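In full, the data.
>
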Amino acid sequence: IVTCIDTDPFVSLRELQLYAHDNGVELPFSAEIGSSTVGGTVFTTTKDSAIGKSPVPGMGIGDVGSCLFAVTVVNEYGELTDYRVIDEMGSFSDQFQSLLDSQGTRGIAVRMLMTVRPMTPVTITMSLLSIPAREKWVAKFADELDRIQSDAAALDGNVAAFLDYSNRLAFVEERIPSANTNDFVVPLLGSLFGSI
């Protein structure tokens, strides 16, 4: 059974997530673009901010479009067409996927069913890392950020990293479902490579 919220295109992502929270569910992503509308983002690629598992097994996760289960679209002739992620044969629909990849060029979304799941408590770890000054260590630093992302993804989490090259600092935020973390998490503060 898939639980969905029936929404209009002009509803903001923040409003949708707050409505979901009021009803004990959530969309499986954390949108920092909360003032954007659902209709304005379902056919575009937004940053992957997925945490946890998809509410629909086998369905992608990570951006706004990955939460879309069904959509009614008005085309250039004013005709309404319904699309669903799963077709009549029980397979993932190629037509639906091509609509998600269309950037809105195949029509305007006028009604959407967005998949939700039970709320997932998340543990957030924030780290401040120094970026190596020596060029040969920059590749190691990139590899270390990739490792942090891979470790988080293995626990159904995600990572956001913000780099400040002028001050040689990286702010890393790691979000992992709390059920997948240890009871005690110590954020890393300092350099990944000792003294630089």
Observations:
- Residues 135-154 form the longest helix (20 residues).
- The beta strands are 3-7, 25-26, 68-74, 80-84, 108-118, 122-130, 158-164, 169-177, 189-191.
- The chain has four helices and nine strands.
- The mean pLDDT is 76.
